[in-house]
Amino acid sequence: MLQNVFGHPAFRGQQEAVVNRVLSGQHALIIMPTGMGKSLCFQIPALVHASADSDDRSCLTLVISPLIALMKDQVESLLAKGVDATFINSSLSRSQREARHASLAAGQHDLLYVTPERFRKPDFLQVLNQRKIRLLAIDEAHCVSQWGHDFRPDYTRLDEIRDLLDNPTTLALTATATPEVQDDIIKQLGLTPEQMPIFHEGINRPNLQLSVEQVWGDDEKIARISQAASQKLQNGSGIVYFTLIKVLTAFSEQLTSQGIAHTCYHGSLDRQQRKQVQEAFMQSDTPLVLATNAFGMGIDKQDIRFVLHADVPGSMESYYQEIGRAGRDGLPAECVLLYDEHDLTTQMRFIESNNPDAEFYRRVYDLLARNQEQVQAFGWEWVEEKIYGRKSRDFRLETVLSMLDRYGAIQRGDNDSKLQVLDDLPPALLDQDRLDQKLQRDRKKLYTLVEYANWTGDRKAFIHDYFGLPYPADSSESG
User: Fold this and answer.
1) Do domains 15-200 and 208-339 have the same CATH topology?
2) Three-state DSSP class for residue 360
3) Distance between CA atoms of residues 291 and 274, nearest Å
4) In what order do the strands lie in the sheet with 28-31?
5) For 202-260, what is each residue's pLDDT tens digit?
6) pLDDT in tens, 404-458
7) Helix/strand/coil percentages in the chain, nearest 5
8) How far apart, in whole angstroms, are the C-alpha atoms of residue 28 and residue 170?
């Protein structure tokens, strides 16, 4: 199957050991650098299982994937190889979704890609009950820990999801995870280190040149982006990452005035616009993209010659994931962090928004519980007005609603138009010590980026140390 379906003459690194472990029904956590072939570790077992159950076609490999664009790209790649894969997500119309439910129930498809939020849908669970889930693969598994506690709370439900699926063989895969995150992934899956050993291929990318440039203000950032575009885009593509959409938009206007062709990708674009931007970038029609961190996960473009960060990222995990998109063809690529201390204020605000205190949780819950009729009648804007009054808005309210939803205390309809209180306020959200510990962890992650920016030694050695890995002795200093 490796040769005939995927066109590879031999396995690389620990791929074969992982495949054999999975086929023997045992769990594993895989940490491999971008481009090393993590997906083969579950795609080949999926095909082996499917061929073994070819008579009744009841066997199914389920892949948890964080982003719609990511699963779409992977499914299209598999279909091109003749693999019967599909996805179900919110990009489908109701009729398309029902058609895929029907084909799944009829025994079609060997791999199914979904987000963890899909398991909230009773009709989806009913379809899954008609199939035998032999393997559960969790792609981009750092999301279990990195996002699971705030931005994507459903990632903390994966142990419940495993129970719903009768605890299938489980494979977690990521390119980056600190020892703490590795432990958290295993814990969140309801497993032990003995049950889920780690296969670690390291994170070294010798062809990436890492550097940090101290800048003062936007003019210096614009000049550096213009320089990279003029020097690097003749031989490939480039990505410039921003934290805020309004800053990205302002930079885009200035680059346009300088005649520098580019495109923009961020969460305020509609789905069709995002698709067009991604396709133009992948086909090199527009080799330079300005993007927020919504862009890039799963992007498999070989010739990205530079990744610039115009703002300080929120964590080393995010930073390494994003620079990992450069130089996938093995040729030299430049990764530059434009460091302005003033940018830290933005990230500190995000940290505060992602970590409401117990009193704020109590305020929001009491408002919802006492005013169900008004919430139903006036919706999200009414809730915002009551919580914030004349004060400036932040993201704390969204964080609270996500966590209340994750714990089953509320149920949210589309755009929060049918928000209902279902249960008491969870004690975990009133545990201020627990909330403080998470706040301090997030602050520490940001401080690590400050340390990295001011590091005078080998930056790759710094990153290896952060991820708890020895730095290869034959590595040369890079930035």
Assistant:
1) yes
2) helix
3) 11
4) 85-87, 111-114, 59-64, 132-138, 169-174, 28-31, 198-200
5) 888 889 999 999 999 999 999 999 999 998 888 899 999 999 999 999 999 999 999 99
6) 988 889 987 765 567 889 999 999 899 999 999 989 989 999 999 999 999 999 9
7) 50, 15, 40
8) 7
What does the block give as tokens for 251?
């930079």
Q: Helices 432-453 & 316-323, crossing angle to 10 degrees?
A: 50
Beta bridge partners of 394: none
Amino acid at 326: A
For residue 290, CA distances in Å to 242, 342, 467 come to 7, 20, 28
Q: H/E element holding 86?
A: strand 85-87
What's the DSSP call for residue 110? S
Domain 208-339: what homologous superfamily? P-loop containing nucleotide triphosphate hydrolases (3.40.50.300)
Domain boundaries, the chain: 15-200, 208-339, 355-436
Smallest CA-to-CA distance from 304 within 272, 336, 276, 257 is with 336
Q: Compute the radius of gyration of the chain from its Cα atoms.
A: 23
CATH superfamily of 15-200: P-loop containing nucleotide triphosphate hydrolases (3.40.50.300)
Report the alpha-carbon distance of residue 163 to residue 263 in Å, rounded: 44
CB atoms within 10 A of CB 450: 14
Closest C-alpha among 442, 436, 360 to residue 400:
360
Please check the confidence at residue 124 and state whether its pLDDT lies above 90: yes
State how far the alpha carbon of 86 is from the alpha carbons of 45, 65, 212, 399, 419, in Å: 16, 12, 41, 31, 31
